[in-house]
Amino acid sequence: MEDGNVACTLVACTSGCTYGGLDYLPGASFPASDGCNTCTCDPSGSGNVGCTKIACHGCERDGIGYAAGAPVPPGDGCNTCTCNAGGEIVCTDVACPEGCTYGGVEYMPGDSFPALDGCNTCTCTAGGGVACTERDCGCDPSSEWWRQYVSTNPGECALIDFACTGGLTYVLNECGCGCEQDPSCPPSFDCKSPEACDLEEIQRRCPYSTIHR
């Protein structure tokens, strides 16, 4: 003012709200901490927060409970899951890269690991296959549990007539000839519980693996 005094308006100031460490303006709405209700900052400017009181339903997976709005571990390891307000687990539907199984061990695409022969190296491919180098490795029939030699005399192999049945494949090297089982087969299976194994499938695909009963 011209006389040097200061004049101010006398409008009542409204106060916002703080909820969950965040500030909100009067009248603003935001999710409640339970993940299913909605809260509102008092429009009158009192600073109070009012929330709906809908009964929220939790979710359960593998015997573990999750609150509504909480993340839930996905079963495939690559998608994202959340427990919704209705008690349902909702997940994204991203196509997961297919892994590989070799020697009874699971690998992700791009992983490298030793081949069963001990000297080559294998890689898990994007399509779930296994690609291995093909170095000429020394052989030892007594230690190659995944193979069964029909003859350990390479000279006789051209004269022997035999077939590799089921999931077996023919093998011929400097040690002789015979059959080898699927490289995904582990050295042994724990089948002490009757329902733990499909014995017929194991014996067809992995006949050289040990079965513990």
Automatic annotation (TrEMBL):
It comes from the Bacteria. Residues 15-82 form the VWFC domain. InterPro entries: VWF_dom. This is VWFC domain-containing protein. It comes from Sorangium cellulosum (strain So ce56).
